[in-house]
Amino acid sequence: MVDFSTHLSRVRELLAEKGLNTLIVMGSSNIQYLIGSDAPSAAVVSFDDVVTLSSRLEFTRTLDEAKHGKHFTYLKEGDVAEYENAIFGGFYDALKKLLEGAGKGGWGYAGLSQETRRRLEEELGSAGVDLTKDFLTLRRRKDPSEVEALRSAARVAERALAKAIAMLETGITEAEVAAEITSCITRCGCEPSFPPIVAFGEHSAHPHAKPSLRKLRRGDPVKMDLGARVDGYCSDLTRTLTYGGCYGKFQGKFWAVLKAQERAIEIIKPGVQAREVHMTAVETLRREKLLMYFNHGLGHGVGLDIHEEPYLNAEATTSLLPGDVVTVEPGIYVHGTFGIRIEDMVLVTEQGPEVLTSFPKLLSL
Questions:
Q1: Which of 230, 276, 252, 255 is CA-nearest to residue 32?
Q2: What is the mean pLDDT of residues 186-199?
């Protein structure tokens, strides 16, 4: 189970470093990082406590899911249930009241929209300090309990992928396979990280293909991209294979994509530029004369969000940190013919890369 209390300690260390007393946090993933639930609309962290503010619609879920903190809801008028810690007024009225209870001193914020920041500065009569980038950097460095959640999410995804591959037969549709993936993940007590991608034949040339009623035929490439959530943490896994035999054009390109992935993974370690990892795959595909078919970044961070920092692409300016978990997913897409993508999750450690996904990279079925 993820130790969310350690995240709160990290945030308090950040406050002390910045000389601030209070941090206002919004955004479902940011709040989940603090308390283990994405139900509240806002969280207020001080050195004494963390308090949350939820709509009445989400308040009971907050009570049941949050691992720590004091929890409040707000309403303008009406009767209050015995378990509701209610503040009368609108959202900003209630948030202002919580901030008064958090103590005086400078305040920071993370994940606020410009309009919310403006409203709060008007209400509080002082300017806040934007700590969004600092907060997201804390989220990047996964602790052991978070890594374990990511491993568990990977195992669920791999179980669903095995089920999907086992049901492949002539005439089955992309939609039927996608439904089985979702069902398998749900039966494990999880939810999908995103709607699964299942693409046969020429559909596999779409990087984000949507499952359709296209039926499987012998010789078709099959591309499947899926993930599951455990304790809020996402997995992301892609495999491409051929059904009923591997024809020559596909085989050579498959090994080229796999080589690009392997070479990119090899250089992953703390301090390496995210752009360099991407460019390693680019140069490998260039040498294989396939670069013209590679049309996206090599990968992205994964955690409470399926796409988060750091991003591995040509525009990236950040360097990898210990505890980053990134996807490495080179792909080529030949319109009207086929596409190939191979994706794994990789943990950045002081010793180098640790691949968290372990599903076999099948060439054909």
A1: 230
A2: 98
Indicate the CATH number for domain 4-140. 3.40.350.10
CATH class, range 144-355: alpha beta
Q: SS3 of 96, please?
A: helix
Which residue bears the tokens 């460019």? 279
Q: What's the rounded Cα separation, in Å, for the pair 291 and 205?
A: 15
pLDDT 10s digits, 71-120: 999 999 889 999 999 999 999 999 988 887 555 678 999 999 999 999 98
CB 298 within 8 A of CB 277: yes
**Quick one: CA torsion of 298, 246, 224, 261, rounded to 10 degrees?**
-20
Tokens of 13: 């260390």
Mean pLDDT value across residues 40-50? 94
- Which region holds residue 22: left if phi is over 0, alpha if psi is between -120 and 50, else beta? beta
Q: Which amino acid is at 209?
A: A
Answer yes or no: are the C-beta atoms of 124 and 96 closer than 8 Å.
yes
Alpha-helical (H) ranges within the chain are 4-18, 28-35, 56-65, 91-101, 114-124, 132-140, 144-166, 174-187, 248-266, 274-287
Tell me the domain boundaries of the chain.
4-140, 144-355
What is the secondary structure of 31-44 as a DSSP string? HHHHHS-S--SEEE
Instruction: Give the pLDDT of residue 245.
Output: 80
Structure tokens at 195: 């709607």
Ranking 106-110, 289-293, 306-310 by mean pLDDT, the lowest is 106-110
Which tokens is 363 given?
């060439």
| Confidence (pLDDT) at 247 | 67
